[in-house]
Amino acid sequence: MTERDASDRPTGDRARDRYLKRRRFLAATGATGVALLAGCQGGDGGQDTTTTETTGTTEATTTETTETTETTTEPEGPSLAEKYPGLRILSPEPENAEAAARETYTDFVTPVEEFYIRNHYVSPEIEESEWSISLTGMVDEEVDVSMQELKEEFPTETVFHTMQCSGNGRSYFEPQVGGNQWTFGAVGNAEWTGTPLSAVLEAYGADTADDMWVSVMGGDAPDGEDIFTRSIPMSKVMDDCMLAYEMNGRPLPKEHGFPVRILVPGWFGNNNVKWVNRLHVMDMMVYGDEWETDEQRLYTHWQQYSYRIIPEEDDEAEQYQSIDIYDTYDQMQATDQIRNAYLYDQLVKSLIGFPGEDSTVSPRRDGTIEVVGAAWAGDETVETVEVSADGGETWNEAEFLQPALGEYTWRLFRYVWEPEPGDYTLVSRATDARGRSQPATVSAPEDQLRGIQNDQFPWNQDGYANNAYMPHAVNVTVE
Ligand SMILES: Nc1nc2c(c(=O)[nH]1)N[C@H]1C(S)=C(S)[C@@H](COP(=O)(O)O)O[C@H]1N2
Ligand SMILES: [Mo]
């Protein structure tokens, strides 16, 4: 619980004040907000930001127009905390940060300043004009596709996609597991714009049969490190995957994959490879000798070893060349076919955004309080959300705040609550269109669960995919 106490509002608010002050300062000096947010896209060869000591002020400013006088070795410019005032930073290098306040889950669109960042390696500094994506493998023509070609020669699409890190909620596992201790904040909903991947594959004669895979590789791994690679089944690729270059109507920020990432709508964050530099069309996932060396799991690490549901009793995940069940929940239940589920589409989950953690609230004039939150279900739609004010003993159906805007985006919900003064434990529970609900708790490791059973989410070695509602409860005092 101390994790959450520490992570709610205060730091976010202080950082936001600084951010707003900075924005005002930038406006006064004629710099645009875009320059601050987009940081690394200076039009000329000048990398990242240009630091100018303006006379009469001690504050450095970032502009797109000022001439570069020298190239510094260390990139200057706003710190991670300044750029993302709504985040609680877990590690500055590589950049890992989650939404600091529950309030983030009362807005339909998550502003970039509050959208979590999850990096295994430090974000690379990339010059868009020098970047291209290699298309290799089972294609008629192996080519390098430039960013310009991607943007100008193919159709453009936009989609709302709620993206959650599969490690979100990891800190609530008992006993605790290693890795970043994400609480509730590693999820956000953004509008993403880019080129449908199907258009690029078709243009260059890729084999797009249903049993094929596209292995998507990131350009961020330093020499000698495992390349962030995810194998995505062709049916999903052809359906709706996108090479995204905009987030909420602006170029992708550096930390979110500038200049281009793959978007796998409805699927866990780990599939949404950033800084994409290669797409390999193949008839299986990255697997075996061809993709790893004796010393290193060069391409296989993040697909076959990591991002798997591994109970306590297993040494490591069982590897497969190919699977034909992609739905994560279905994989978790089909343990005779897949011993350790791969983290693909997101499980049904919800979060209360208001009231905040450990807050004191007074009812409105009519004696009611509006409990507001967000619910999502991967590539399924959310059917119902229920709210309990007594820690899950009794439930009340919530209403949706807006019509469904596609199956990949969360829906905000509201429950009008009429409490007496006192202390309460609020929880929310969502159910998807297939009737699957959030389980109550996380199992004990000894139970060796591989799937959701008896209202319990399986404790697993790497702390993935926790969608149990009780660990996400909010304690509030009503005045
Ligand atoms: N190349 C690359 N892509 C990556 C990662 C990474 O470390 N390297 N992290 C992944 C994980 S685990 C998540 S949850 C999402 C996070 O995306 P975001 O930082 O834009 O929120 O990016 C994914 N794509
Ligand atoms: Mo993640």
From TrEMBL:
Coiled coil ranges: none
Cofactor: Mo-molybdopterin
Superkingdom of the organism of origin: Archaea
Domain Oxidoreductase molybdopterin-binding stretches: 122-284
CDD domains: SO_family_Moco_dimer (cd02110)
Keyword Metal-binding: yes
Ranges where the Moybdenum cofactor oxidoreductase dimerisation domain occurs: 344-441
Region (Disordered): 38-82
Compositionally biased region (Low complexity): 49-74
Annotated keywords: Metal-binding, Molybdenum, Oxidoreductase
Short name of one Pfam family: Oxidored_molyb
GO MF, any single term: metal ion binding
PANTHER family linked to this entry: SULFITE OXIDASE, MITOCHONDRIAL, SULFITE REDUCTASE
Protein name per the record: Sulfite oxidase
Organism, scientific name: Halobacterium litoreum
Lineage of source species: Archaea, Methanobacteriati, Methanobacteriota, Stenosarchaea group, Halobacteria
